[in-house]
Design a protein that fits this description.
Blueprint: E1 6-8, E2 22-28, H1 29-32, E3 45-51, E4 58-60, E5 81-88, E6 97-98, H2 100-104, E7 115-119, E8 136-137, H3 139-149, E9 153-156, H4 170-177, E10 181-184, E11 197-201, E12 211-213, E13 216-219
Parallel strand pairs: 5-7, 6-8, 7-9, 9-10
Antiparallel strand pairs: 1-13, 2-3, 4-10, 4-12, 5-11, 11-13
Helix pairs in contact: 3-4
């Protein structure tokens, strides 16, 4: 596969430097498994990882805001693999609304079951004091997406797209009650542009967790070509 056909959409994970908890510790294998024998000159280690389910680029499942909803282990993996499209709202400022009318200007590019990414370019603020700055999607616009397009996933390169100033997170609730997963803090969406790409969002299938840090990759058309 040609490397230029692969688009990385996840932030690198830096222990001790994230907005959410990420800690690692590395041991010589014999500290944890004394029965394992290896020569002193052979490097052989194991690592422990402690992290938040919302650390870095992550995918959130219905269980996050809807008690009967699927968790990381039960969410259908086939809904996390599919064609993806990026909607460019990078002109929007933090705190500014993305309206239904603005969203509908992209209607011709959307297909049922899409993975939809909302580009804001707020990923430039990731790992800064302004990491949570974001425009937001109106509840009306979210309802239209869910009812008309029926996407499998909606994501963004910002920390989120929730309506501010509420006490019930209307966009989360609408998505999760419709069985739609949410991606937050993606990156590099500009590299996709107006293309349709094949996207893979593969979380760890851990029972009982509401979200999971994830590596997301997109493949351009022709990714499996074997030519020059």
């Amino acid at each position: 596969m040609r490397r230029e056909a692969i688009i990385e959409l996840s932030h690198r994970m830096l222990p001790g430097r994230e907005s959410f908890r990420l800690e690692t510790r590395t041991f010589d294998v014999t500290e944890l498994l004394p029965e394992v024998v290896h020569r002193p000159d052979i490097w052989y280690v194991l690592s422990d990882i402690t992290m938040s389910s919302h650390m870095g680029t992550h995918v959130e499942f219905p269980y996050h805001h809807w008690e009967p909803g699927a968790d990381a282990a039960d969410y259908p993996v086939e809904r996390l693999i599919g064609e993806a499209v990026v909607l460019d709202f990078s002109h929007k400022e933090a705190g500014e609304e993305i309206t239904l009318t603005e969203l509908q200007t992209h209607a011709g590019r959307l297909r049922e079951g899409d993975i939809i990414f909302i580009r804001t370019d707020m990923d430039r603020l990731f790992r800064t004091e302004r990491w949570a700055d974001q425009p937001y999607l109106s509840a009306e616009a979210m309802a239209w997406l869910i009812e008309t397009v029926k996407p499998n996933v909606i994501g963004t390169d910002a920390a989120g797209f929730e309506v501010p100033g509420t006490d019930y997170q209307p966009n989360h609730l609408q998505m999760f009650q419709a069985g739609i997963a949410m991606v937050e803090s993606a990156t590099n969406l500009a590299a996709i542009g107006d293309e349709r790409v094949l996207c893979f969002i593969l979380p760890l299938p851990i029972e009982g967790i509401d979200a999971c840090p994830v590596r997301i990759v997109a493949l351009r058309k022709g990714a499996f070509d074997h030519g020059d």
